[in-house]
Amino acid sequence: MRIVLATLMAMLLIGCADNDSQSTVTQVAQPEEMFKWKLVTTWPKNYPGLGLAPENFASKVAAMSAGRLKIKVYGAGQLVPAFEVFDAVSQGTAEMGHGASYYWTGKAKAAAFFTSVPFGLNAQEMNGWLHYGGGLELWRELYDEFNLVPFAGGNTGVQMAGWFNREINSMEDIKGLKMRIPGMGGDVITRAGGISVTIAGGELYTAMQTGVIDALEWVSPYNDIALGFHQVAKYYYYPGWHEPGPTLELIVNKDALASLPADLQAIVETAARAVNQDMLDEYTARNNEALVSLVETHGVQLRKLPDEVVAELRNISEDMLEELADDSDISRRIAESVKAFQKQATAYHAISEEAYYQARKQK
Amino acid sequence: MRIVLATLMAMLLIGCADNDSQSTVTQVAQPEEMFKWKLVTTWPKNYPGLGLAPENFASKVAAMSAGRLKIKVYGAGQLVPAFEVFDAVSQGTAEMGHGASYYWTGKAKAAAFFTSVPFGLNAQEMNGWLHYGGGLELWRELYDEFNLVPFAGGNTGVQMAGWFNREINSMEDIKGLKMRIPGMGGDVITRAGGISVTIAGGELYTAMQTGVIDALEWVSPYNDIALGFHQVAKYYYYPGWHEPGPTLELIVNKDALASLPADLQAIVETAARAVNQDMLDEYTARNNEALVSLVETHGVQLRKLPDEVVAELRNISEDMLEELADDSDISRRIAESVKAFQKQATAYHAISEEAYYQARKQK
């Protein structure tokens, strides 16, 4: 139990002459409370991209608060296992967590909507929906009963469809395919006749090498090249239909956040916003470099999923999203909000971002 | 002249019992300096989207600094005219400015690269280049001789090609076209045989209505609908080849920035980063809504620029970018940096973002 002592302070008014527009007025000094927080994550400590975001966040917060809010980042398993991050922050074992909302569908099914759903919003659209389309308010409502306040905490951009040792020429090739693909993407593969397998990141290379699995999806070139999948897989397929704009999350224990003075609360919120963009910036730069290396140095065979397969996977996904929407009142409201946003975003991006990508390469 | 007084402070060590991980340690109190800054902008006060970013920035900084750094935002003409923002901040008349780097090509030609160049990077790519591709370092080098430190301060996403009262079916239709289109886009139109006209935003509606101009580009649906261009123009063309990822800038007087304690410097930097993303989020959400209103309520005729026209405009743009690169050593280094980044980004986005847009609508 914490004992808060009443503080007595000798106040000293300090005069200050000021003839300048950049004025220097000296405030009455106040004793300042210091906070030491723990941030638990679902990633290995310092894992490239994903795992650097919480470190980046903690460092920005420390700098902006002049050390008044110090946040120590724990990798998966250092304080709690990866998949206990949600509970640990909910219960206050740690004040913050970094991970992905779709890991917590066992707690609240609708959490799936806030990472990425198959054939859903891309990064730019997710950020638009969350911050100006009502998405974040719904996310906060969903997490409120768990005593958690979520913030968007990074985005990888469109992922790759994954690494395959079997060519995908039609839906027939999905039948019996043993693939490591978690979340709703995995459910779609299962409904398409494949076998969705859950294997930890560290064991994927061997599983692929020994034929335990025929395919796997991880992230995108920046992360994938580091794990060496190009050494054990023949084909690298695109596009990442299953995770088009994966948003990571920073979750804060609601009581811990409320215990901060207003300036530190603002610092937490703004640092999260900056980190959310920063990760996408990093992937955007590093994916380029890694793809070039994979294709030009390692001779990776890039393959595009056939249109017919993409269309069929999308049909299956739409059915699944409808079922998810039926799960609860809030699930329905989230599904309707994101669907309406996606309809408009798809129309606008067809004539802006998408049309521009085409115009740029017009011969 | 500012007189800084030495301060005398009664120090009081305050004891604190702590049995909790969320520890509460009371720091020795320090007198804190207060700063009042002026931020001048190239936009009308509170102009939707563009003009809200500096207000948003000032509000985040005030909240995070608990009022230690108060920034007052001035609309164009309130303290200095729009096109004197650069000089005002350079000379310290105001500590900060918000605008677009391509307004300052009269000071440094290479400034054009940091807003948007025809057929260049889109928003996601600009942010990747600036923050992880060496772009921001080059921008700082370019502005250093003007005593300015630049930060990315917002992005509108791909703009529209603009409003036209003449159909564009071939390059012949560009000949003699009187169009309001500033910057390099305007130079491209001029080289294509058109007439680039400079008219202030407030006079565009009447100029279009009375036939003084045949065409104009402004921003995108969110801003354009507010100015009522759909009432005086027949066609709304896409895509915005001339400004694919317009980055706005927050510029800070270098001495003013250096005069801040480290925590306030970090607050300025992180608030800029957050605001940079926030604007794109807002446009992404609002453009959708405005486009639907323009097309469904106001019956706007959307038109796509013909492939042949797009290809020819791109050829002209590439020649111009080569000439710009020849302007100076730093111009050459910036041009090479952005060109290398764009080459890789184009390749990667072809199989990620672009391929995904196509996959999402695959029938």
List the helices and strands and how they pair.
The structure is a homodimer of 363-residue chains.
Chain A: E1 24-26, E2 33-41, H1 52-64, E3 69-74, H2 85-91, E4 96-99, H3 123-132, H4 135-144, E5 148-155, E6 162-164, E7 178-180, H5 183-191, E8 195-197, H6 204-209, E9 215-216, H7 221-227, E10 235-238, E11 247-253, H8 254-259, H9 262-297, E12 301-304, H10 307-325, H11 329-351, H12 353-360
Parallel strand pairs in A: 2-3, 2-4, 7-8, 7-9, 10-12
Antiparallel strand pairs in A: 4-11, 5-11, 6-9, 6-10
How would you characterize this protein structure?
Two copies of one chain form a homodimer. With 363 residues, the first copy, chain A, is of the alpha/beta class. Chain A has a domain at 35-158 and 245-284: D-Maltodextrin-Binding Protein, domain 2 (3-Layer(aba) Sandwich), CATH 3.40.190.170. Chain A has twelve helices and twelve strands. Chain A has helices at 52-64, 85-91, 123-132, 135-144, 183-191, 204-209, 221-227, 254-259, 262-297, 307-325, 329-351, 353-360, and strands at 24-26, 33-41, 69-74, 96-99, 148-155, 162-164, 178-180, 195-197, 215-216, 235-238, 247-253, 301-304. In chain A, strands 8-7-9-6-10-12 form a six-stranded mixed β-sheet. Chain A starts with 23 loop residues before the first strand and ends with a helix. At the A-B interface, β1, β2, α1, α3 and α9 of A face β1, β2, α1, α3 and α9 of B. β1 of chain A pairs antiparallel with β2 (33-41) of chain B.
